[in-house]
Specification:
By secondary structure, the protein is an alpha/beta fold. It has 2 domains: about 290 residues, Rossmann fold (3-Layer(aba) Sandwich), CATH 3.40.50; about 160 residues, no CATH class. Helix content is about 45%, strand content about 15%. It has 16 helices and 11 strands. It has a 7-stranded mixed sheet, with helices on both faces. Strands 6-7 form a two-stranded antiparallel ribbon. Helix 4 crosses helix 10 and helix 5 packs across helix 9. About 0% of the residues have low confidence. Keywords: Methyltransferase, Restriction system, S-adenosyl-L-methionine, Transferase. One of its GO terms (molecular function) is site-specific DNA-methyltransferase (cytosine-N4-specific) activity. It comes from Caloranaerobacter azorensis DSM 13643.
Length: about 475
């Protein structure tokens, strides 16, 4: 069986000698290279994984790296930049899969420039060809007295209204038909997005097509009627929608120009041939990863169930409506959060069975106040426990796991996830090496959230995290 060297003492000594604020990275540019290609909620900033890899490599050989909750692929990017042989990443959000593939793919500079030029030329051509419908759609809406701020009518029937408009203008353009499309997008915005999408989908080479789709995805979010300061899906006020007139093509070009620079810089920095393995897979399963094969795991799991913490699925929904990605049917796009940790609630009469006394005490306190919330919290940790068990099977003996976690509060009870992970891990042969606290001035999260999803009821989100270091002992 593959076995690494136990370097607990060396790591503890290294961490102990670091400055107290070493892991805070306040004021650091966290969007360099492909880390800045696309916005994503609750991102673990890259200096954390970059420094973990650098420190562990001093004392232990690292060939294989895993992030089972890869999100926007921060850890995978850093593994590739560090010149590791293989990096593995999994997630159950289809948008995460697209972002991970693009962020870790090297593009040849001259070929990229050529593809960008061809793309822009084709966009200008198709805009010119469709200039009449683009210039007349707003007057058509006004003349037919269509209220573009209403959920009924335009909100629910945008595809029908646009289909009739396009037919009258002898246009063969086809627009999408997802639920409440008009509620989230204005008429001209829909037409422009479809024109851009058609051009991108005609690109034959997958790596370049995917790169442009990431630029398109960022554009979709920016021109959507959502409040961009929110990760959960909230529409802007009606009066703001009336005045909201995004220039879709200009915004797309802006993101394209930014991302071209970032992917070029990343491609220049990748000197080694690192194998990147990305799978749409559950961290509770991980069938794609061989047992006893991983040297190092770095991850930042969800803080809790997505419905009451960071709604990754809600954040991704506008992009998923437009991208036609694999792994998910259009009718299931609204269910992404249901498939993540804690997505399926425990029974009302659930019996506590997890191996953590810290969690048990908290569940009992929450249960006295709100049984429903206790069920949600317990469900999340049941799934987290399964993930710890599965991940550990994939690790070599004496390999290290770095869990970057935050301790959330539910019903005024602080859930000590750092301690809970340590306690859950013992039954699977994990021993605690150390627990490193860090403040999170750069974490991409709202300063307040609404854990109950009730308007006006917010709590301040966490401002510090713990880096829990575990070693697989058996």
């Amino acid at each position: 069986m593959n076995k690494l060297k136990n370097v607990d003492k060396e790591l503890i000594n290294e961490f102990r000698n670091l400055p107290i604020n070493y892991w805070d990275f306040e004021g650091e540019d966290t969007k360099e290279l492909t880390h800045g290609l696309h916005n994503y909620p609750a991102v673990m900033i890259y200096p954390i994984s970059r420094n973990i890899i650098s420190i562990v490599k001093k004392y232990q050989k690292i060939d294989t790296l895993l992030d089972p909750f890869m999100g926007s692929a921060t850890v995978l990017v850093e593994g590739k930049l560090a010149g590791l042989k293989e990096v593995y990443g999994t997630d159950l959000n289809p948008l995460s899969i697209l972002l991970a593939k693009v962020k870790t793919t090297v593009l040849e500079e001259s070929e990229l420039d050529k593809k960008v030029l061809e793309l822009k030329e084709r966009i200008e051509e198709i805009y010119c060809k469709n200039s009449i419908i683009l210039e007349s759609i707003n007057s058509y809406v006004e003349n037919n007295k269509i209220d573009i701020t209403a959920k009924k009518g335009w909100g629910e029937e945008a595809h029908i209204i646009l289909r009739d408009f396009l037919k009258k203008n002898n246009s063969d353009l086809r627009v999408p038909n997802f639920k409440n499309m008009g509620y989230w997008f204005k008429p001209r915005v829909i037409l422009e997005l479809q024109l851009l999408k058609n051009v991108i989908l005609n690109i034959q080479q997958e790596d370049y097509r995917n790169f442009f789709l990431v630029c398109f995805s960022e554009t979709v979010r920016y021109v959507c009627n959502t409040r961009n300061s929110e990760f959960k899906l909230f529409r802007m006020e009606k009066e703001k929608i009336k005045d909201f007139a995004p220039d879709v093509k200009t915004e797309f070009y802006k993101f394209l120009e930014r991302n071209v620079k970032k992917i070029k810089e990343f491609s220049k920095r990748c000197e080694s041939d690192c194998s990147v393995n990305i799978e749409f897979e559950d961290a509770r399963v991980l069938n794609s990863i061989p047992d006893n094969s991983i040297d190092l795991m770095i991850t930042s799991p969800p803080y809790g169930d997505s419905k009451t913490t960071v709604a990754y699925g809600q954040f991704s929904r506008p992009s998923l409506w437009w991208l036609d990605l694999k792994y998910i049917e259009p009718s299931n796009i609204h269910k992404v959060d249901n498939n993540l940790l804690g997505g399926k609630k425990a029974k009302k009469d659930f019996n506590y069975e997890l191996q953590s006394e810290t969690l048990k005490k908290s569940i009992e306190i929450i249960k006295e106040k709100d049984l429903n919330r206790a069920r949600e919290v317990y469900s999340f940790y049941v799934d987290l426990d399964k993930s710890i068990q599965t991940i550990t099977k994939k690790m070599k003996l004496n390999s290290y796991q770095f869990w970057v976690v935050g301790n959330r509060t539910v019903k005024e009870e602080k859930l000590l996830t750092d301690r809970i992970i340590v306690e859950l891990g013992r039954q699977y042969g994990l021993v605690e090496v150390c627990d490193i606290p860090r403040s999170i001035p750069n974490k991409v999260m709202p300063s307040k959230n609404s854990p109950t999803n009730e308007v006006g009821k917010t709590v301040t989100t966490m401002t510090n995290e713990h880096i829990v270091v575990l070693r697989k002992e058996r």
